[in-house]
Amino acid sequence: MTLSVKALTLSLLLCLVVLSAVYTGTYAFLLARHERAVQHAALQKVMFFSLVGAGNTGALETGMQMFDRVRRLEVQAAPRFMDFLWQAPETATPNARILEDWVGRFFASCEAAVCQGLSLRGLNLQGISLRGARLAQADLSSSDLQEVDLSEADLSEADLRGANLAGARLVGTRLRYANFLDAQLTQADLENANLSDAELHGVHLGHVNLQWTKLNRTNLTGAYLAGANLYGADLRGAKLEGIKLPAAVLVGVDLIGAGLIEADLQEADLEEADLIEAKLRGANLAGANLKATNLHKAHLFQTNLTQATLTGADLFQTNLVGASLAGADLSKAELKQTDFSGANLRGANLSGANLAGAELSGAEIDEHTQLDEKWRLVWDIVNEKGKVTHLVGANLRDAALAGVTLEGADLKGADLSGAILRYAILTDADMTGSLLQRADLHEADLAGANLAGADLSEVQGLTREQLESAKTYRAARLPDYLNGRE
Q1: What's the CA gap between 37 and 185, in Å, rounded?
Q2: Do the domains spanning 285-371 and 382-486 agree at the CATH topology level?
Q3: 3-class SS at 43?
Q4: Which of 100, 111, 227, 290 sees the fewest Cβ atoms within 10 Å?
Q5: Cβ of 6: how many Cβ atoms within 10 Å?
Q6: Which CATH number fits domain 285-371: 3.30.110.30, 2.160.20.80, 3.10.25.10, 3.40.120.10?
Q7: What is the SS3 assignment for 373?
Q8: DSSP 40
Q9: pLDDT higher than 80, residue 22
Q10: Is 0.85 topped by the overall pTM?
Q11: What secondary structure, in 3-state letters, does 289-322 show?
């Protein structure tokens, strides 16, 4: 019995010695591995700085290809003798802060002779600060630049094809002539950046901040900018055909002469934007906010403006032929000489709008269309084809009545001053005492018309032959050129 106890004790002591030796050996192995990792990381860092500090472009490019690998080298923390077996191993990246700080300082002060046109293709620079970097004409194609801070940097003419710039900060960055084909810019911040003449054809720019950004002559054909903020951006001369801008913020944006043919601008906010002479043929502006927008002489042929808000907008001489304005709010809008031929105005609100000289021929309205009494009468005259004849004392001042048939109509005392009556048929019409000063009567048929006491001063296009064909023009006030006075 005594012998068995002694044997057991010796066995236990032997096991403890063996376990202690194994524990100590394992600890020594892990400590040695840690030290080798530290030495390897330090050696890689030295190699990196040796290359980038060589002072020539080739060595710098080679070193930068090592950058991400060297900065991400992981080293497990030195094991603690007492608890290394049951404590989760901690890791660190000892080179990360040093390399990231260096790259930020270096590229911000790099001389053009070294850094201009630098090849940094395919680099992973995710999350680092390159604020103020001098990288004009650099090749950053296919690089990972997610959440990189490139504010105030010079990336003029840079090659950014296929680069991932999602969430990147590019505030005030110079990007003239930069190539972004196939790049990813979702949620990037490009406020006040200069992207003039840049290539952004078909690029994804969803929810990007482009406030006050210069986009002069920039190619944005087919680009996707859903939810993007372009407040105050300058898009003069930009190529915007087929651009997708649903729900984008374009308040106060400069789009003078911009080509937005077939662009998607559904529910976009274009309040107070400048769209003078912009080309919007076939564009989708359904539900868009165009309040107080300047659309002077814009081309909106067959544009979808269903339920759009155009309150107080300037559409002087705008082409809205065949456009859909069903349910649109055009109240108090400037619609002088606007062409609504064939447009859909069902349910539209045009109350208080100035429709002087506006073309309403073929425009569709219904019982829900809100149109001031004067302009509803004009619509009736041009669309009912001779059915409206009782117009005594009617207010038709500045109305567009070219080619209308008013044969035998009663227009006694009617106000037709400034009206467009070119090619109008006014045969046998009673126009006694009517006001026709400044009216356009080119080629109008006045045969048998009663012009007694009518005011024809400053009328345009009236000939002696037209006047003599009238039934009478006794006591009429004639233009100077028909009275022998110039």
Answers
A1: 37
A2: yes
A3: helix
A4: 111
A5: 9
A6: 2.160.20.80
A7: helix
A8: H
A9: no
A10: no
A11: ECCCCECCCCECCCCECCCCECCCCECCCCECCC
Domain boundaries, the chain: 26-103, 285-371, 382-486
Q: How far apart are the first and last CA of the chain?
A: 148
d(CA 373, CA 356): 13
Tokens matching residue 99: 């390399």
Estimate the crossing angle of helix 2-52 against helix 96-109, to 10 degrees: 0
Domain 382-486 has CATH 2.160.20.80: yes
Average pLDDT of span 448-474: 94
For residue 421, what are its two tokens?
A: 């009556």
Segment (H or E) for 211: none
Question: pLDDT digit string (tens) for 181-227?
Answer: 999 999 999 999 999 999 999 998 989 999 999 999 999 999 999 99
- Contact between residue 340 and residue 320 where contact means Cβ atoms under 8 Å apart: yes
Strand runs labelled E in 145-286: none
Contacts of residue 106, defined as CB under 8 A and 6 or more positions apart, other chains included, come to 52
